[in-house]
């Protein structure tokens, strides 16, 4: 078991090579072991490119005959952009497969495991499953619910402010913290802000401080207050999310310059963020980094669409500034979202607080 676990950990480490490169596909790593020795390794590195198993078999060559395959996700059994990985496993002569997770994609859903077992292979499922779940949280949520994983990121003072009363935000967090945020952006399908953030900061929401691709920018503006000349709308793939009652002429001004305009029902200018997540999922987005502002953060928490929280706490005090999170409309503490799997770490002078968001059951 110790050897099995070590090889699975290696496969999980290899899978990380695909971060920011393979969405909407999952991160997958594979290791081929024969006679206790690693003879081939691979990872899924590019959408439409060979899967992790195929890379590992190519490295192993004939040494894959009678070997064990360690893979972080169930081998696919359907034709997509590439042939089924189950066929590659059988051709390689693998005798045993150790798989961390079943793939919830409806086109797979255990069929790959069944196919391999029916062909006489020994298949074990579950080793490293918890880590594989965390690693592919965005892919798994999208496949299971049709919605993207939503990560709320905040940079706040010790007293919970994201700006001064006059709106000054630069810079609350340190350079090290801002660099990490750009790394997160490069791994995420989209970054989302509200109209207030665009009006106050005119951000670009791209990746500059690290190497990597820039995410698709999403601006939520039910009342259509932002300008098509804002920096964010000059970027390819930019999306304006607004009310279907917003003036058609104003919406056309965005569409005419290549901005995608998603229109949804709104009440008093407030969009249903659950519907926003449904639309984002239907567009193939598996992960979104929500970067502000405080009112949009509160709306997302009230709508119970936030999955993870990442908060940078800087060692400064602002006092009467803008709250990191607006009113959640809570009358009782029992109704408050709770945080689980909390991790706290130092990042330069800042503290980074990460957690999973859990919502209480409705009293109804």
Write a concise keyword list for the protein shown above.
elongated, 11 helices, 18 strands, single chain, 364 residues, five-stranded mixed sheet, nine-stranded mixed sheet
How would you characterize this protein structure?
The radius of gyration is 23 Å and the shape is elongated. It contains 11 helices and 18 strands. It is an alpha/beta fold and 364 residues long. The longest helix is centred in the first third of the chain and has 14 residues, at 2-15. It has a 9-stranded mixed beta sheet with strand order 11-10-9-8-14-6-15-18-17, sandwiched between helices. Strands 2-1-3-4-5 form a 5-stranded mixed beta sheet, with helices on both faces. A two-stranded antiparallel sheet has the order 7-16.
Question: Which helices and strands appear, and what pairs or packs with what?
Answer:
Blueprint: H1 2-15, E1 29-34, E2 37-43, H2 52-60, E3 68-71, H3 85-92, E4 96-99, H4 111-118, E5 122-125, H5 129-135, H6 137-145, E6 149-157, E7 161-163, H7 175-187, E8 190-194, H8 195-201, E9 216-220, E10 239-243, H9 248-255, E11 260-264, E12 266-267, E13 270-271, H10 273-282, E14 287-292, H11 294-302, E15 308-314, E16 322-323, E17 338-347, E18 350-358
Parallel strand pairs: 3-4, 4-5, 6-14, 6-15, 8-9, 8-14, 9-10, 10-11
Antiparallel strand pairs: 1-2, 1-3, 7-16, 12-13, 15-18, 17-18
